[in-house]
Specification:
The chain is built from four helices and seven strands. By secondary structure, the chain is α+β, with helices and mostly antiparallel strands. The strands form two sheets. The chain has a four-stranded antiparallel beta sheet with strand order 1-2-3-4, with helices on one face. Strands 5-6-7 form a three-stranded antiparallel beta sheet. A hairpin with a 4-residue loop joins strand 6 and strand 7. Helix 3 runs antiparallel to helix 4. It starts with 14 loop residues before the first helix and ends in a 6-residue tail after the last helix.
Length: 171
């Protein structure tokens, strides 16, 4: 679901704060509780049924009881301009694959793009990036202006993929 902001709010320094204040007061006024551990998460419970909302700027991801979801869409469309984009396929650059029993979040397309960008698409996979018994020193590292240094440039790109989609057992 996408709730577009009014054009006049885009670009203003306080736009995000005002939108969050408006949306928060609306959600709390309609029975949602804001999570204390993650302020982007709202929960609405009725008996045994629950609906979870994840807010990302003006995008709202919801999951839970279908009847609560329909009720939420109906009541929110009265006060906001809503564009329901159907089942989630992508979120923050991550592909979301859904089946009846499983929701899978993958960065496969991002990893393939990094491999293509650094001309490594045809490389063979390895369990470890180096021989575990090897000993290296600083003198073994290539200088920044050498052609061998190009090999080390993709490393930060790989590091971006790991923390974004890693499930935290703390939550």
């Amino acid at each position: 679901m996408h709730c577009p902001l009014l054009k006049s709010l885009y670009g203003l320094r306080q736009a995000g704060r005002e939108w969050n204040r408006l949306l928060d007061s609306w959600l709390v006024g309609h029975g949602f509780g804001r999570s204390q551990s993650d302020y982007c998460l709202y929960i609405w419970s009725q008996g045994e049924s629950s609906l979870f909302l994840v807010i990302w700027v003006d995008d709202i991801l919801y999951f839970g009881d279908q009847s609560l979801a329909e009720s939420f869409k109906t009541s929110s469309s009265v006060d906001f301009s809503i564009d329901d984009k159907g089942p989630m396929l992508w979120f923050l650059g991550m592909e979301v694959l859904q089946s009846r029993d499983l929701i899978e979040v993958t960065q496969r397309s991002y990893v393939l793009e990094v491999l293509r960008r650094f001309d490594m698409s045809e490389c063979n996979p390895a369990g470890l990036p180096a021989d575990p018994g090897s000993k290296y020193s600083k003198s073994d590292c290539p200088a920044e202006n050498s052609p061998e240094y190009e090999f080390f440039v993709p490393v930060p790109s790989w590091q971006l993929a790991v923390p974004v989609s890693r499930v935290s057992p703390g939550y």
